[in-house]
Design brief:
Layout (H helix, E strand, L loop, with lengths): L3 E3 L12 H9 L2 E4 L2 H10 L7 E2 L5 H13 L4 E4 L12 H9 L4 E3 L6 H8 L6 E6 L6 H9 L4 E6 L4 H12 L4 E6 L7 E6 H10 L6 E5 L2 H18 L1
Parallel strand pairs: 1-4, 1-5, 2-3, 2-4, 6-7
Antiparallel strand pairs: 7-10, 8-9, 8-10
The structure holds S-adenosylmethionine.
Length: 240
């Protein structure tokens, strides 16, 4: 039966493509891609002789209805993004919603995404977490920081290298200097780095070592910090 396949692709290491992703990409009638050049490169590495069609944030509003209609009429379609799982801080949601509204089956394959390895590598609690994607660049940014300052779950953010230092500085201001965090850079790539410390320590480090590459920031929730501060106070009181 025809359906929409959401196909995750590697976030750096090409070996991270799944066997099923290769099978689905080889089998579908149409491949929609955020960047056709990147995807053509991946397809040629996988030995798949298909030409992807461009599908990105600037054209998806106009085209989703047409793609859903084609799947409903019998064609099978795979959506891939530049890296990771489509619809996670990438185009995909609009097409999924349009398909579901039209009774078209949707299947998202499990596979690479940047926030999961970053969260697990951080060593911070991952039983409950909140994924915020990219923070608002200007409007609503301060409000978001105030909201996140009292968020009790572990917080996961995507960030670009040229904004990392500014964001860490704002974290010191809004969350307090002693909040633990982890900056994951270039996950799955040759120069992968997972740097853990307080937000103040990370701010100092990256101020003197300007970062390059792709970045996920994982920050300890307010509850962890509250518990730690309470424990420290109890210990201090016992010692007095
Ligand atoms: N759809 C992707 C996913 O599933 O993770 C996310 C796409 S979003 C446009 C790109 C952002 O993801 C980057 O700016 C960075 O924050 C994060 N990212 C992607 N690849 C990464 C990597 N190898 N290491 C660290 N962060 C990465």
């Amino acid at each position: 039966m025809s359906k929409l396949y959401i196909v995750p692709t590697p976030i750096g290491n090409l070996d991270d493509i799944t066997l099923r992703a290769v099978k689905v990409l080889g089998m579908v009638d149409i491949i929609l891609a955020e960047d056709t050049r990147n995807t053509s490169f991946l397809l040629s590495k996988l030995g798949i002789d298909k030409k992807p069609i461009s599908h990105h944030m600037h054209n998806e509003h106009k085209t989703v209805a047409g793609w859903a209609a084609r799947i409903a009429a019998g064609e099978s379609l795979a959506l891939v993004s530049d890296a990771g799982t489509p619809a996670i801080s990438d185009p995909g949601f609009l097409l999924v919603r349009e398909c579901l509204r039209n009774g078209v089956e949707v299947e998202c394959l499990p596979g690479p995404t940047a926030f999961v390895p970053a969260l697990v590598n951080s060593g911070l609690p991952c039983d409950r977490f909140v994924f915020e994607g990219f923070l608002p660049p200007k409007k609503g940014r301060q409000t978001k920081f105030k909201e996140l300052a009292i968020e009790e779950r572990t917080i996961v953010l995507y960030e670009s290298p040229h904004k990392l230092i500014k964001t860490l500085g704002e974290m010191v201001e809004y969350f307090g200097a002693d909040r633990q965090a982890c900056v994951s850079r270039e996950l799955t790539k040759m120069f992968e780095e997972n740097r853990r410390g307080t937000v103040a320590e990370l701010f100092t480090h990256y101020t003197s070592h300007p970062p390059k590459g792709e970045i996920v920031i994982v920050i300890e929730g307010a509850k962890e910090l509250k518990t730690k501060r309470e424990k420290r106070k109890e210990q201090d009181d016992e010692e007095d």
